[in-house]
Design a protein that fits this description.
Number of helices: 16
Structural class: alpha+beta
Number of domains: 3
CATH superfamily of the largest domain: D-Amino Acid Oxidase, subunit A, domain 2
Strand content: 15-25%
Low-confidence stretches: 1-5
Radius of gyration: 23 Å
Helix content: 25-40%
Mean pLDDT: 94
CATH topology of the largest domain: D-Amino Acid Oxidase, Chain A, domain 2
CATH architecture of the largest domain: 2-Layer Sandwich
Shape: globular
């Protein structure tokens, strides 16, 4: 199902002249739109599907400093990523949670327990001591700490801290889209760039609304290629020559029933000596990932992918019953865009050693900026670099407003009384719902509470175990550019990740909400 009427789109474009046009609504495009609009630049962002609908919705939901890059001695990269992680934790204290990572040093680990603890300690130092100091566990104490861990070949374990997104990666991208819109940016989902022509003043762009079929011509002084894994292909179509290109690696995750009562992340090394995780996601667990070289962007999960991930989980964990395909609630498959030089022979070195660093290239003649690679943790740096480059094109910034982070003045004490009135016999549930509302909406929580007050049915919890109510989902439908069901269920919320399709179809409250998306 999809709406026939849009909240935004090509038909509503009144002004068609912009300073900057951004193509791509993933994390790189979203942060670029957010910082530029906050600084007074006139911006349009277009995404041919929904915001964050490809690579940016398929991450591990980790905000981390890249501890694995210590294995390849990329200390400056780890230093930079740790700094970015710390800044995101400071700016988004409700959305991003410091989380312990319990790393087993088992038979497939590429190092021993002493070197593992040394690496975790170095990581803590590079992280400016902003997380808890690492701890070392013997074989026996590791098993006592986490009974689920397999002791076969286990030498010990190391625990260190990183961070996790408490909702989902695509929701985090939406935070930046919302910030951009707040400062006047035009951000359009389901709008495709169908033609780009260089003109003396910059670019003349033809865009097509994927829902209505309507077309419009827009003009921009600068074009930003934020197409993620499609960035190289996009430049080829423009006739742009760059120093960098992309190698693509597919990684998949499987969502399964919750495996442990602990809220920590369990880390292991798979049969290829690559990090493998068991990650909490609401009331479920996420297991993965893989690292498969692919020649083109894909989100397809194969039987081989599934069996590998299940095999690793069953090897690393002492489960009462081994995981099978029947336990899979949902699947995630994303493509990592890895930056390489145009003439570099990727086959000449270890494929898995390629890091998630980003490169931003400028073609002054074409007035084109291309963002290659990157990851969620590094998004603030990407935004700042893009803003600095736009200034070099002569685009003036007329203000300097806050462009990321939460409203830290919003506290639970302000609204707890109102929410508790709806759940007088279950104050723990009231606290959980309030935390979710503040995390996802900040001051907009007042608008959602109005929906509860107008109709008490809107305070109904949609799924037991999750902190979403009917009223919150209705609010998202009307205010967050939701065009299709999957926009709501997969990206504005993680419901489609943590509940099976059968559970979704059988949930009457949720189906009432989805019926509001007109067919």
């Amino acid at each position: 199902m999809q709406r026939t009427a849009r909240n935004s789109g090509v038909p509503n474009l009144i002004d068609t002249n912009f300073d900057v046009a951004i193509v791509g609504g993933g994390i790189n495009g979203a942060v670029s739109a957010a910082i530029l609009s906050a600084r007074g630049v006139k911006v349009i962002l277009i995404e041919q599907n929904d915001f964050a609908s490809f690579t940016s919705q398929e991450s591990s939901n980790m905000v981390w400093g890249g501890i694995k890059y210590l294995q390849t001695y990329e200390v400056p990269l780890v230093w930079a990523l740790c700094g970015s992680r710390n800044e995101l934790m400071r700016a988004f204290p409700n959305r991003i949670k410091a989380t312990s990572f319990f790393a087993a040093v088992g038979p497939t680990a590429p190092f021993g327990k002493v070197l593992g603890f040394f690496g975790a300690s170095l990581y803590w130092i590079l992280g400016r001591f902003k997380t808890k100091s690492p701890e070392y566990y013997s074989r026996d104490s590791a098993k006592e700490h986490e009974p689920l861990i397999s002791t076969e070949g286990l030498k010990g374990a190391v625990q260190y801290d990183d961070a996790l997104l408490l909702d989902n990666d695509a929701r985090f991208v939406w935070d930046f889209i919302k910030s951009a819109k707040k400062y006047g940016a035009t951000c359009l989902n389901y709008v495709k760039l169908t033609k780009a022509e260089e003109v003396p003043a910059g670019w003349s762009l033809k865009v097509t609304d994927q829902i209505t079929g309507d077309e419009k011509q827009i003009n921009a002084k600068i074009l930003i290629n934020a197409a993620g894994p499609f960035a190289s292909e996009f430049n080829e179509n423009l006739g742009a020559i760059t120093k960098n290109t992309l190698a693509l690696s597919k990684g998949i995750h499987l969502v399964v029933p919750k495996l442990t009562d602990h809220e920590h992340v369990m880390a292991f090394f798979d049969d290829n000596q690559r990090l493998f995780y068991v990650i909490p996601m609401h009331d479920r667990s996420v297991i993965g990932t893989t690292d498969t070289r692919v020649s083109e962007p894909t989100n397809h999960v194969t039987d081989e992918d599934r069996d590998f991930v299940l095999q690793q989980a069953n090897r690393c964990l002492e489960l009462f019953k081994p995981l099978t395909r029947e336990d899979i609630i949902s699947e995630r498959a994303g493509v990592r865009p890895l930056v390489v030089k145009q003439n570099e022979d990727v086959k000449a070195h270890d494929w898995t050693s390629l890091s998630r660093k980003h490169e931003i290239e400028v073609d002054k003649k074409k007035k084109l900026i291309t963002i290659f690679g990157g990851k969620l943790t590094d998004c603030i740096n990407v935004g700042k670099e893009v803003s600095d480059l736009v200034k070099k094109f002569g685009i003036k910034e007329i203000r300097n407003r806050k462009w990321y982070g939460e409203d830290l003045e919003i506290t639970s004490s302000t609204y707890f009384g109102e929410i508790a009135e709806f759940f007088p016999k279950n104050l723990d549930l009231a606290k959980k719902l309030l935390a979710g509302l503040i995390r996802r909406h900040g001051a907009e929580i007042e608008e959602i509470l109005k929906l509860w007050q107008e109709d008490e049915e809107n305070s109904q919890v949609v799924f037991e175990g999750l902190d979403f109510t009917k009223g919150e989902l209705i609010y998202m439908l009307e205010n967050e550019e939701v065009i299709k069901e999957t926009d709501l269920l997969r990206r504005r919320t993680p419901i489609q990740l943590v509940r099976t399709q059968a559970e979704i179809e059988q949930n009457k409250v949720l189906q009432e909400v989805l019926s509001l998306i007109k067919s």
